[in-house]
Design goal:
Layout: H1 2-21, H2 31-60, H3 64-85, H4 89-111, H5 116-129, H6 133-152, H7 165-237, H8 243-273, E1 283-286, H9 287-297, H10 299-305, E2 308-314, E3 318-321, H11 323-339, E4 346-353, E5 357-364, H12 371-375, E6 385-386, E7 392-393, H13 396-407, E8 411-417, E9 421-429, E10 440-441
Helix pairs in contact: 2-3, 2-7, 3-4, 4-5, 4-6, 5-6, 5-7, 7-8, 9-11, 11-13
Length: about 450
C-alpha cells in the first residue's frame, strides 16, 4: 500500500511538472516553437524558488538591494509563465532575456556574487530561441561585454557588503547546472525534431506508393473499356458494320459508355476513400455479386476471344474482407486469365468454403509460365509479357493483388506450366451472412 501511495504521489508531481513545462503550448503551435516555449518555461520555472529563497536570505542578512533584485527576478519569471499562458510568446522571451541581462550584469558588477555565469545561460538560450541573426548578434555583443566587464573590473567592497565565498560557489554551480540542462533539453528537442521529420518522410513515402498504386488501378480499370470503345469505333469508321448492324453497335457503344461511367464512379469513390493512404476496411459481403460485376466488366472481351467462362461458386459464399480490394484482386486475376487464354479457350472460377477460410481459384488453359517467370511474379521486377491477342502486361496488377490479399490477412498462390495454363488461388476469411439457399451460380 505504501508503495502505491508513493507511486501515486510521484505520478501526481510528474503530471504537475509536465503541465507547467508545457504551459502555453497548444496543438496549433508549430513543433519547433512549441519546443522553444518549453525551453523558456524550463529556464523560468527553477528560477522562481531559487531567486525567492535568496530574496528572503539576503533580506534577513541586510542585503536589501540584492534582495530586491532577487524579488524582481522572481516576479519576471512568474510573469513569463503567465505571458506564455496567454500566448504572448515573443514578448515573454524579450522580457525574460532583457531583464535577466540587466539584473545579472548589475548584481555581478555591484556584488561580485558569481551572477556573471548566469549571463552564459542567457547567451545560450538567446541563440537557441531566436533565428534572427541581428537579435542574436546584438545579444551576443551585450552579454559578452557584460561578462568581460564583471570578470576584469576589480572588485570594490565599498560598493556593497561582501558576499560569502560559498554563495559565489553556489551561484556558479547553479548557473552551470542551468546551462547543462538547457543544452541537454535542446539536444532532446533536436532529436524529437529529427524523429518527426523522419516520421513525416516515411508517411510521404508511403502516400507516394499508395498514389502509384491508385494510378495503376485507375489505368487498369479504364484501359479495358476504352480499348473496347476504340475497337468498335474503328470498325464503324472502316464500314465493317452494315446499316442493319448499326442499331446493335450503337446499343453496345451505349452499354460500354455507361459501364465506363460506372467504373469511373467506383474508382473515384474508392480513390477518395484512400486519399490518406490505402486503408483496408473489412466487412461481410457475398462473393457472387462481386463476381457478377467482374464478368460484366469483361463481357465484350469474353465475346471477342470466344472464351468459355465456368463459374462454380455457391451463392451463399461470404467473405470478411475489404469489398473494393477483393474486386480489384478478382478483376486483375480474371483479366490475366483472359489475356493469356487462347481464342476459344476456357476460364474457370471456383470457390470452396472451409470452417474459417474461403478458397477462390481462377484457372486458365493458356500460355502458362516457366519457373523463372513464376519466381519474379510478385516482385518489383516482373517480366512484361504480351497476351495471346497482343495485350501488353506489366505485372503491376499482380503486385497489387498480393498486397491487397495480405492486407486482408489472406494467402495468394500460383501454379503454372508452360502451354498448360495457370491457376491463381487466394484464401480469405470467411464471412458471416445467414443464407439458407445452397444453390450454385453457373
Amino acid at each position: 500500500m505504501l508503495h502505491g501511495v508513493k507511486r501515486f504521489v510521484y505520478q501526481g508531481l510528474e503530471n504537475c511538472w509536465d503541465q507547467v513545462v508545457k504551459l502555453g503550448v497548444h496543438p496549433a503551435l508549430p513543433f519547433i516553437e512549441a519546443r522553444r516555449t518549453m525551453l523558456m518555461n524550463l529556464l523560468a520555472l527553477p528560477t522562481i524558488p531559487f531567486t525567492l529563497f535568496f530574496c528572503i536570505l539576503n533580506a534577513c542578512q541586510g542585503r536589501y538591494l540584492l534582495a530586491m533584485l532577487n524579488f524582481f527576478n522572481t516576479s519576471t519569471a512568474i510573469g513569463v509563465l503567465f505571458m506564455h499562458k496567454y500566448r504572448m510568446y515573443l514578448g515573454a522571451r524579450l522580457v525574460l532575456l532583457v531583464v535577466s541581462v540587466f539584473i545579472y550584469t548589475f548584481s555581478g558588477l555591484y556584488f561580485h556574487n558569481g551572477a556573471e555565469y548566469f549571463l552564459l545561460n542567457i547567451l545560450v538560450v538567446s541563440i537557441l530561441v531566436y533565428d534572427n541573426k541581428w537579435i542574436i548578434g546584438i545579444l551576443s555583443v551585450v552579454v559578452t561585454t557584460a561578462f568581460l566587464l564583471i570578470i576584469f573590473i576589480p572588485q570594490s567592497w565599498y560598493l556593497a557588503p561582501p558576499v560569502p565565498p560559498e554563495r559565489v560557489r553556489a551561484n556558479v554551480a547553479v548557473s552551470l547546472t542551468f546551462l547543462i540542462s538547457a543544452l541537454y533539453f535542446f539536444k532532446h528537442i533536436q532529436t524529437d525534431y529529427q524523429l518527426e521529420i523522419e516520421k513525416q518522410r516515411q508517411v510521404l513515402q508511403s502516400m507516394n506508393k499508395d498514389k502509384e498504386k491508385l494510378f495503376s488501378i485507375v489505368a487498369h480499370d479504364i484501359r479495358s473499356p476504352l480499348a473496347t470503345l476504340e475497337s468498335l469505333l474503328d470498325m464503324y469508321l472502316k464500314g465493317q458494320y452494315s446499316r442493319e448492324d448499326m442499331g446493335e453497335a450503337a446499343a453496345v457503344l451505349h452499354e460500354k459508355v455507361a459501364q465506363l461511367g460506372g467504373t469511373l464512379d467506383n474508382v473515384l469513390r474508392w480513390s477518395t476513400r484512400s486519399m490518406k493512404g490505402i486503408q483496408t476496411r473489412p466487412q461481410d459481403f457475398l462473393l457472387v455479386p462481386v463476381l457478377t460485376e467482374v464478368l460484366n466488366f469483361f463481357e465484350l472481351i469474353i465475346q471477342q476471344k470466344q472464351i468459355t467462362v465456368e463459374v462454380q461458386v455457391p451463392v451463399n459464399t461470404t467473405l470478411y474482407a475489404d469489398r473494393d480490394q477483393v474486386s480489384v484482386i478478382l478483376r486483375n486475376l480474371f483479366s490475366n486469365a483472359l489475356k493469356f487464354s487462347y481464342p476459344g479457350g476456357k476460364v474457370a472460377i471456383t470457390a470452396t468454403q472451409g470452417q474459417e477460410r474461403v478458397t477462390i481459384a481462377v484457372t486458365d488453359h493458356g500460355v502458362g509460365m516457366n519457373v523463372q517467370q513464376l519466381k519474379a511474379l510478385f516482385t518489383s521486377q516482373p517480366f512484361p509479357t504480351y497476351g495471346t491477342g497482343g495485350e501488353r502486361g506489366t505485372g503491376l496488377g499482380l503486385m497489387l493483388c498480393r498486397e491487397f490479399v495480405e492486407h486482408n490477412r489472406g494467402i495468394i498462390d500460383v501454379e503454372s506450366d508452360p502451354e498448360s495454363g495457370t491457376t491463381f488461388t487466394i484464401q480469405l476469411s470467411k464471412g458471416d451472412i445467414d443464407m439458407n439457399e445452397p444453390a450454385v451460380a453457373n
